[in-house]
Model the fold of this input.
Amino acid sequence: MRKKLKVFVAGHKGMLGSAILKKLKKKNIFKVFYETKKNLNLLNQKQVDAYFLKNKFDIIYLCAARVGGIWANKIYPANFIYENLTIQTNVINAAHKSKVGKLLFIGSTCIYPKICRQPLKEEYLLSSKLEESNEPYAIAKIAGIKLCESFNRQYQTDFRSVMAPNMYGEGDSFDEEKSHVISGLIGKIYNAKINNLKTLSVWGTGKPIREFLYVDDAADICVKIMNTRKEVFNKLVKPNLSHLNIGNGIGISIKKLALLIKNIIGYNGKIYFDTSYPDGHPKKVANIRKQTTLGIKSKTSLEKGIKKTYHFYLKQKFK
Ligand code: GFB
Done:
């Protein structure tokens, strides 16, 4: 019987980490490891080094991060840059020191410039100024890509980076202030409906365009990318341009998104746009030609994904 590969999922409680964990557990070729924050503080380099040296993992999914929507990024910039830089530095360095075979680093398409040709190609990275609203987070994630790249160049490690669009789905946070737009609007619109509110505020102008990836599809794409042989993966990237966009390449305006969620929830009040809130990136839609070359694609339509997320929200609320 072939020895099972030892896989560590850092951030297994998060939306993407829990979806990847669920997927990996279904395959019986992996022995999957994960730890609570109490047992393993990823901000503590000594703890991370000791844990990795003790377990000698074959594969690592680095899903642990400080994440949040546009407003969370505005009010907690220090947390976003410090925690993401520290966690990724500790994990990637310890992965090298403990000779981990393969690591996946996950970032988002906010790494691309504020004003940029669309759809966003990997080579547009660092071609001009970043979007102010999430610059600390974006700089941390760009540093994470460069960390993986530099270890690969110097030590021939196989540390891969994928940049996802806005993800949503089961396990998302629905906190009005800190959440991303889909989960934020689901909570707000549901409350407006049950409280019979006449109007509902949507932040910004409603004009920005976003690409949304359902979290189970994101997990499926991540696992498939990690199962891709190194020589096949390395044909798609360059030593100093090693990240890959993942997603579905489909954009929708925030206004159309809000109307879609309003119809799914069955809210009949009026939507107005509160421009005292920022818009963020005018447009963030990824060019996913490299992902497509691998024959990997997302399956869940936005409408179906929102309905599943809404049902998860209700289940959570009334459990
Ligand atoms: O998803 P979101 O918070 O983050 O906002 P970003 C997307 C767009 O939706 C912005 C608008 O234009 C928001 O102004 N919006 C409208 C709302 N109503 C709401 C609402 O009720 N809640 C929220 N959250 N937005 C994030 C980055 O940028 O993208 C993160 O800040 C990360 O760091 C993530 O990169 C993927 O898409 O603007």
